[in-house]
Design goal:
Keywords: Membrane, Transmembrane, Transmembrane helix. Belongs to the TerC family. It is found in: Membrane. It is a multi-pass membrane protein. There is one protein chain. This protein is an all-alpha fold. It starts with a helix and ends with a helix. Helices cover about 80% and strands about 0% of the residues. It has eleven helices and no strands. The protein has one domain.
């Protein structure tokens, strides 16, 4: 057991926790919306059971994703999706939770949380599976489960604090988006279908692609954010 923790890729663990915090804000909002009409005594039960079900479901989805990323060209596709997810992270959608209705029964609330989390987990699953690729094969699933477990209290109980920090320090969101771009770049050039055609040393190509991916997400995200703000200002002035 001690040897496992010594050999564990702690950088990947930190990446998974950061990804969960940044992309878990939506999950915290869904939990709050689904449970707000429950009796006070059942709210904590709804939060705990709904979160537990959502986490178990996500581990299963990530297990499939990690396996699928070993198929040629699927890792490259995952990298492209992750670039888009990173850009989208810098452009939060305020209307994303309009379809989540509060429930007045415990089981209904739990079901709502699990279903909503399933629908919203695509970005989280791809990002975590990508981060896990940096670890040894036999460490990937334990690392994913460990990262998710550590992130649960941060999302459930610390969600309001995290959201306030993100509002106060936007640089955290930018850093998270850059991290997703970094992981995406690494996925693109380490794909089994792409590696044979790489003209550069694999390690050099990996870091170069990671830096370019991070830069791409930040630059494109800032440009689109500026355009979005300009449109909103223009619409408000009419």
């Amino acid at each position: 057991m001690f040897e496992f923790f010594v050999e564990l890729n702690w950088a990947a663990v930190l990446q998974i926790i950061m990804i969960d915090i940044l992309l878990g804000g939506d999950n915290a909002v869904v939990i709050a919306l689904a449970c707000r009409n429950l009796p006070a005594k059942q709210r904590l039960q709804g939060v705990m059971w709904g979160t537990a079900g959502a986490i178990i479901l996500r581990v299963i989805l990530i297990a499939f994703a990690v396996t699928l990323l070993n198929i040629p060209f699927l890792k490259a596709i995952g990298g492209l999706l992750l670039l888009w997810i990173g850009v989208k992270l810098m452009l939060p959608d305020a209307d994303a939770h309009d379809n989540v209705k509060p429930a007045d029964k415990l089981w209904t609330a739990i079901k709502t949380i699990i279903i909503a989390d399933l629908v919203m987990s695509v970005d989280n699953v791809i990002a975590i599976a990508g981060a896990a690729q940096g670890a040894a094969d036999h460490h990937q699933m334990p690392l994913i489960i460990f990262g998710l477990i550590v992130s649960i209290p941060l999302i459930v109980w610390g969600s309001q604090l995290v959201l306030k920090l993100l509002d106060r320090f936007p640089i955290i969101v930018m850093a998270g988006a850059a991290l997703l771009g970094w992981i995406a770049g690494g996925l693109l050039v380490t794909d089994k279908g792409v590696v044979p055609y790489m003209p550069f040393d694999p390690e050099v190509a990996h870091y170069a692609a990671a830096v370019l991916g991070a830069a791409f997400v930040v630059v494109v995200g800032l440009i689109l954010k500026k355009r979005q703000t300009a449109r909103q200002v223009g619409a408000a002035s009419k």
